[in-house]
C-alpha cells in the first residue's frame, strides 16, 4: 500500500525520521512494544525508537495509563503547580544530582538556556563544544577550532585542540560536551576531566541522548559536570527535558518559563518513566538483550564475509561499515527484512526487546548477512571507516591515535558532512 503524504508539503520543517531509498518518510500506523506496523500490515522491529526516546517500548501500559489519567484532569492541571511536579523534581535531583533542577520541552531548548546562563554567570564569551546539540543555529560553525558568531568553538573531541583553548581559561565560560561511549574510551574522559579541572572551567554535560540509558543517572562517573541535561530517556517519548547543577551557574534560569510548564500529561509520562529508570533494571535488561544481538550479528557478518563491525554495547551501538556503498546495501537489505535502524547513526533498543524479540531480530539479521554475502569481497574496515562512523554518530573524532597533522587531514575530509 502507498500512503499519500502530499500534505507533508505544507510542513515547513524536514523532521528527522526513517525514510525509504527515495527519501520519502516511512509511514507506520501502529506501535506495540518493540514492533511497528506499516500500512501493509508488515511488522518491523524498531531499533530507532524515536532516536532513543521510547526507552520502555511503544504503548507501554503503565505510561499510557498515567497519561490517560492526566489527560482526564486527575493528575494535576496545566494551570498551576501540582504534586506531580514536586515528585518529578525530587526524582531528578536524587538520580542526577545538582543544587537546582529545571524543566523544558526539548533538550535543544534546555541546552541553549543553560549555556547562556553559565556564560552570564561566568562573564566570559567563549564556549568550547563537542557533539551534536540539536537544531539550534547557535551551534553551527563554518569552520572547526575557531569561534562562530555566538562564540562557540567546535573542538570535535580532539583533546589537543581543547588543551590549546584551555591554556587561555580567562576567555572560556564553559566546555559543553555530549558524552559518547561508542567511540570514546576511559582514557579520553580521564584526560578531558583533568584538563578542565586544571583550567578551572566548568563542564556542561549534554546527556540528552545518553543520560539514563546506561544506568540510573548520568551515563558515566568519569565526568564531573557542573551542569547536566537529560531528555531522551526521561518520558518514553513525551516532550520533557531536564537540567540541573550548580545553583550559581544556573541563577538566570529563575526567569525561564513557558505556557505548557505544568502540562500534566508530559509530567505524568516523565514521573512514571523515571520511577522505573531510577531502579537501573531497564538499563540492565536493554544491555543484556542488545549484547546478545551484537554478538550474533558480528558472528553472522564474519561468517558471511561482510565488512561490517559494531561499536558500543547493548545499551547503545552503531554499525561500522567499510564504506558508503556497503552501508547503503546494508540498510536496504535490513529494510527488506523489516529491521528499522537509524541509518548511519546509533541504534537504541528498548526494554521491550524480550528474548523473543531478540531471537526474531537475530533471524532477520541472518537473512541480511546472507543477502550481502559475497558482494564486497576484498573490502575491509579501515581507520577511515571508524572515523566516518564516529563522525556520523557524534559529529566528532573517534579517540584513536593520531598526530595533529593527521587530525587536520581527517577533519578536512569529513567537515562538509
From TrEMBL:
What this protein needs as a cofactor is: pyridoxal 5'-phosphate
The reply to whether Transferase figures as a keyword in the UniProt entry is: yes
In the record, what terms sit under GO molecular function?
A: pyridoxal phosphate binding; transaminase activity
Q: Which Gene3D superfamilies match?
A: Aspartate Aminotransferase, domain 1, Type I PLP-dependent aspartate aminotransferase-like (Major domain)
| SUPFAM superfamilies given in the database record | PLP-dependent transferases
Q: Which UniProt keywords apply?
A: Aminotransferase, Pyridoxal phosphate, Transferase
Q: Which InterPro entries match?
A: Aminotrans_3, PyrdxlP-dep_Trfase, PyrdxlP-dep_Trfase_major, PyrdxlP-dep_Trfase_small
Question: What's this protein's family per the entry?
Answer: Belongs to the class-III pyridoxal-phosphate-dependent aminotransferase family.
Specify the protein name. Aminotransferase
Q: What gene is it encoded by?
A: sis5
Amino acid at each position: 500500500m502507498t500512503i499519500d503524504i502530499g500534505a507533508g508539503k505544507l510542513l515547513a520543517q524536514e523532521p528527522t525520521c526513517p525514510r525509504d531509498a527515495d527519501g520519502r518518510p516511512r509511514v507506520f500506523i501502529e506501535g506495540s512494544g518493540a514492533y511497528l506496523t506499516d500500512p501493509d500490515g508488515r511488522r518491523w522491529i524498531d531499533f530507532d525508537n524515536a532516536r532513543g526516546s521510547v526507552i520502555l517500548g511503544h504503548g507501554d501500559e503503565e505510561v499510557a495509563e498515567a497519561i490517560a489519567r492526566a489527560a482526564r484532569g486527575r493528575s494535576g492541571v496545566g494551570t498551576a503547580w501540582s504534586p506531580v511536579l514536586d515528585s518529578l523534581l525530587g526524582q531528578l535531583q536524587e538520580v542526577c544530582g545538582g543544587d537546582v533542577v529545571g524543566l523544558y520541552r526539548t533538550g535543544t531548548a534546555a541546552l541553549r538556556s543553560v549555556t547562556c546562563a553559565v556564560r552570564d554567570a561566568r562573564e566570559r564569551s567563549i564556549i568550547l563544544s563537542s557533539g551534536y546539540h540539536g537544531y539550534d543555529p547557535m551551534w553551527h560553525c563554518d569552520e572547526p577550532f575557531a569561534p562562530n558568531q555566538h562564540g562557540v568553538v567546535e573542538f570535535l573531541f580532539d583533546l589537543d585542540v581543547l588543551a590549546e583553548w584551555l591554556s587561555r581559561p580567562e576567555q572560556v565560560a564553559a566546555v559543553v560536551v555530549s558524552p559518547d561511549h561508542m567511540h570514546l574510551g576511559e582514557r579520553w574522559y580521564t584526560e578531558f576531566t583533568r584538563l578542565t579541572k586544571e583550567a578551572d572551567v566548568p563542564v556542561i554535560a549534554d546527556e540528552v541522548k545518553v543520560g539514563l540509558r546506561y544506568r540510573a543517572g548520568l551515563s558515566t562517573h568519569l565526568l564531573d559536570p557542573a551542569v547536566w541535561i537529560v531528555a531522551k530517556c526521561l518520558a518514553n517519548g513525551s516532550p520533557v527535558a531536564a537540567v540541573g547543577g550548580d545553583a550559581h551557574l544556573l541563577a538566570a534560569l529563575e526567569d525561564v518559563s513557558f505556557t505548557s510548564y505544568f502540562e500534566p500529561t508530559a509530567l505524568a509520562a516523565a514521573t512514571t518513566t523515571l520511577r522505573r529508570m531510577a531502579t537501573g533494571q531497564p538499563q540492565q535488561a536493554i544491555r543484556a538483550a542488545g549484547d546478545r544481538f551484537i554478538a550474533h550479528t558480528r558472528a553472522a557478518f564474519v561468517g558471511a564475509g561482510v565488512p561490517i563491525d559494531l561499536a558500543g554495547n547493548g545499551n547503545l551501538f552503531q554499525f561500522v561499515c567499510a564504506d558508503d556503498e556497503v552501508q547503503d546495501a546494508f540498510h536496504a537489505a535490513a529494510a527488506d527484512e523489516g529491521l528499522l535502524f537509524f541509518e548511519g547513526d546509533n541504534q537504541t533498543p528498548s526494554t521491550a526487546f524480550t528474548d523473543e524479540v531478540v531471537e526474531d531480530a537475530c533471524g532477520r539479521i541472518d537473512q541480511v548477512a546472507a543477502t550481502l554475502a559475497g558482494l564486497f569481497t576484498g573490502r575491509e574496515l579501515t581507520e577511515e571507516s571508524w572515523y566516518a562512523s564516529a563522525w556520523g554518530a557524534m559529529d566528532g573524532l573517534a579517540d584513536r591515535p593520531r598526530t595533529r597533522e593527521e587530525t587536520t587531514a581527517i577533519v578536512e575530509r569529513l567537515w562538509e558532512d
